[in-house]
Amino acid sequence: MNRRSFLYQSALASSLPMLSRPAWFSSLFAAYEMRALRGNVGVFTESGGTIAWYVTGKHIVVVDTQFPDPAAHVISEIKKMQDHPFDLLINTHHHGDHTSGNITFKGLAPKLVAHENSKANQQRVAEDRGNMDQQWLPTETFSTAWETQMGDEFIQLHYFGPAHTDGDAMIHFTEANVVHMGDLVFNRRFPYIDKSAGASISNWIQVLDNALNTFDRNTLFVFGHSGEGYDITGDAEDLQAMQNYLSSLLNFMEKEIAAGKSKEEIANATQIPGAPEWKGDGIGRSIDAAWIELVEKK
Ligand SMILES: [Zn+2]
Ligand SMILES: [Zn+2]
């Protein structure tokens, strides 16, 4: 969080209780952060999954879009840096906190690339919710790998199978050596594990192995979400820590299930043994997902 957004949030927290904040107040004091990382690649955070951007004198690429308001904010921040046409939008996966702002890029970015399952999930969820008119669906999809060149930079998309969903892409800016991991890493925060969209905890551990074998010690990783006091960027050790969380979750659940406990009894846990750094709301989502995987075998 930069100084400006920190100050806005402190002012908000001290001056008005949550419920009495009028809408104009939060829009006037929008708290977002635009942060350069390296090699023309940076991140934007406001609400929802982290956005990454690549901006040079000739090219503009954006990864993920949060929601319409944050999407408008990142677009105006990028236009302050370079005012020329956008080249490409990419989605890491279909979840609404990463794709609801796609619509704001419609007509601005000529192309939207995502994994084929990500597109199918986005379409299915929008049809279920009856809000297809608020979506901009991927215009191009891939199954295992996709690559393009933008100036001196190569952008490679990798897919290693089901994990957080069944359509999680890793986006590698190879020259900057920055990878957007989407929600494949919740940095020290209980993850969402979307069984309704084909998630697999055991394969997620494998997918992170593939990432560790594909990228290197100098790779800078961008994460969809992080816990209190942890950053949305990190290194290979943070991927290993996420793997450790997932395997600790499966070990814990296997032991509890073998001891004859019900899902409700297991859900009394406040942390996963072996991974105490994982905190926040939502341990129940991990327990539910592991139960589906281990007991219902889905
Ligand atoms: Zn997310
Ligand atoms: Zn997600």
What does this structure look like?
It is a single chain. This protein is α/β, with parallel strands linked by helices and 298 residues long. The protein has one domain (3-19, 30-294): Metallo-beta-lactamase, Chain A (4-Layer Sandwich), CATH 3.60.15. The protein contains ten helices and 15 strands. It has helices at residues 3-15, 23-28, 68-81, 96-99, 102-105, 116-129, 201-214, 236-258, 263-266, 283-294; strands at 33-38, 41-45, 51-55, 60-63, 88-90, 112-115, 140-142, 145-150, 153-158, 170-173, 178-180, 186-187, 220-222, 225-226, 233-234. The chain has a seven-stranded mixed β-sheet with strand order 1-2-3-4-5-6-7. Strand 8 (145-150) and strand 9 (153-158) form a beta hairpin. Helix 7 packs antiparallel against helix 8 (236-258). The longest helix has 23 residues, at 236-258. Residues 1-23 have low confidence and may be disordered.
Layout of helices and strands:
Elements: H1 3-15, H2 23-28, E1 33-38, E2 41-45, E3 51-55, E4 60-63, H3 68-81, E5 88-90, H4 96-99, H5 102-105, E6 112-115, H6 116-129, E7 140-142, E8 145-150, E9 153-158, E10 170-173, E11 178-180, E12 186-187, H7 201-214, E13 220-222, E14 225-226, E15 233-234, H8 236-258, H9 263-266, H10 283-294
Parallel strand pairs: 4-5, 5-6, 6-7, 11-13, 12-14
Antiparallel strand pairs: 1-2, 2-3, 3-4, 8-9, 9-10, 10-11, 13-15
The structure holds zinc ion (2 copies).
